[in-house]
Amino acid sequence: MRDARIMAILPGVDIERAKALYTEKLGLRPVDGSTVGDDAAFEGSDGTLLYLYEREAGTEAEHTAAGWMVSDIETVVDQLRDRGVELEQYNLLSLKTDERGIAELGGSKSAWVEDMEGNALAINEFGT
After folding, report:
1. Do residues 8 and 49 make contact, with C-beta atoms less than 8 angstroms apart?
2. Cα–Cα nearest to 26, from 44, 10, 9, 11
3. What is the pLDDT of residue 89?
């Protein structure tokens, strides 16, 4: 399993709305021929995939459901904000984001957005 690519799988009540979010707002590229029915798959770097399937009732996770590793979180956050994506703001004991939505966590930086079902999606820059 160590050498296998990993695929995140998320449910969505409205797949067309989800497709719009992941392509138009988050900038992901759909994978042709990898869907079943109305489901959708999007490719990330190095062969990683995000697969969305339709479900009658959403399943909002109480944790981060998927995440991306980036080399320059400030640029990614700016690009997302330019596309109208709202970044989550946290002010918890162990997690505080700045005005842009970026938290510094012991040498790393992270930011979060919510998908159409309320699932938290992370943007991470490790080793800053």
Report:
1. yes
2. 44
3. 96
Q: What DSSP line would sit under 30-76, residue for residue?
A: EPTT--STT-EEEE-GGG-EEEEEE-SS----SSEEEEEE-S-HHHH
Residue type, 108: S
All domains of the chain in start order, with CATH: 1-55 (3.10.180.10), 64-128 (3.10.180.10)
Question: Residue 122 and residue 128: Cα distance in Å, rounded?
Answer: 16
Interacting residues of 114 by C-beta distance below 8 A, sequence separation 6+: 86, 88, 120, 121
**pLDDT digit string, tens, across residues 82-92:** 999 999 999 99
pTM of structure: 0.82
Is residue 92 helix, strand or coil? coil
Query: Residues 111-122: pLDDT tens digits?
Result: 999 988 888 999
- Read off the pLDDT of each residue in 39-68 and give the average, rounded to a whole number: 84
